[in-house]
Amino acid sequence: GSAHSDAPAAARHLFLSSALDGKLQLWDLRDAAAGPVRSFAAHTNRVHPMQPALSPCLRYAACGSEDRQAYLYDVGSAQLVEKLGGHSDAVTAVAFNPYHPQLATTGLDGTVRFYSDRGDRDG
Fold first, then answer.
1. Each residue of 57-97: pLDDT tens digit?
2. What is the per-residue pLDDT across 93-116, written as a single tens digit (0 to 9) for each?
3. How is residue 89 annotated by DSSP?
4. pTM
């Protein structure tokens, strides 16, 4: 395990899991036996491990997908907010900027892309 966590203090009891069955699940570790709090499944994840992320404000969950897009979900409703394109191969990792409303994605195409409410750009 890792001793590092980029989650805000209010989210230290929340955990996102991503599995090769295509499910992204949010767990509350205070009552993990009750099962996942939310499940997100619009993305495709059957072959490559994906690194998901929770936004610092805890409103969004994001993950990569094998369809060359990143997916942004609303945590409260579990609904898909947006698909973020631009990669030419599977998106395998996402990370939120802790200080600005920005999401970074990377994938098997070897690129890093940045998305914000002001549009996206390559890195």
1. 999 999 999 999 999 999 999 999 999 999 999 999 999 99
2. 999 999 999 999 999 999 999 999
3. S
4. 0.85
- Paired residues of 71 in beta bridges: 63, 83
Angle at 74 between CA 7 and CA 105, to 5 degrees: 60
Number of C-beta neighbours around residue 29 at 10 A: 9
Which residues are CB-contacts of 61 (< 8 A; sequence separation ≥ 6)? 16, 24, 26, 38, 40, 52, 53, 54, 55, 72, 73, 75
**Are 35 and 19 within 8 A, CB to CB?**
no
| E strand segments, 13-97 | 14-18, 24-28, 38-40, 53-54, 60-64, 70-74, 80-84, 91-96
Percent with pLDDT over 90 in the chain: 59
Task: Say how far apart CA 94 and CA 14 lie, in whole Å.
Answer: 17
98 Cβ partners below 8 Å, 6+ apart?
6, 8, 56
